[in-house]
């Protein structure tokens, strides 16, 4: 594939991602608020604390923040949060929730592959179920490395979604029960576009992180068993992993 085709595919994939999440923004936000007020809050905090420095006031960037779940989770812990997302409707929902919840955070519409902040700006970068959608993950990891302060940490929760197995039967109240057939089709199409331009994960992530200059790379492929210990409305049937690394 030549450079022009690469650029066109990159743009096409990002447009499809934006369209898909624009169509889900309001319902997705409702689910994230429910998750924030459930037992899931403590589970996610426990996982994040495994890697975050044990001090208050960390300057943290949440990449692909969606409607702000990690921003509100960590902002309530006394940290300084900035959230970015490619989808404007997600950011609008995040700003509304920030006001309602009384948890301050800065939210911007921004490309995860090219966050527009000065180098050495953040103590930590967190991200959840985002990296798999990026057509140029190598470029993203290199940029994220630059954004971190010396000894800053990247914490990435993700899954190899473009290679996931056919979804199993889920509870009637599950979030995916509200996804339309059109949305399912868009999601499946996105996977077919991303699969040929990515390698199996998380092994690929380890290689890319090393190439980007990260060190102390830690991989946990059992995190899903702890977070999703029962099949409820928040359950994720796709195996997820945590990959954390320091600058």
Automatic annotation (TrEMBL):
One of its GO terms (molecular function) is S-adenosylmethionine-dependent methyltransferase activity. Residues 61-155 form the Methyltransferase type domain. The keyword Kinase does not apply. The keyword Chloroplast does not apply. One of its GO terms (biological process) is methylation. Keywords: Methyltransferase, Transferase, Ubiquinone. Pfam families: Methyltransf_11. This is Ubiquinone/menaquinone biosynthesis C-methylase UbiE. It comes from Lacrimispora xylanisolvens.
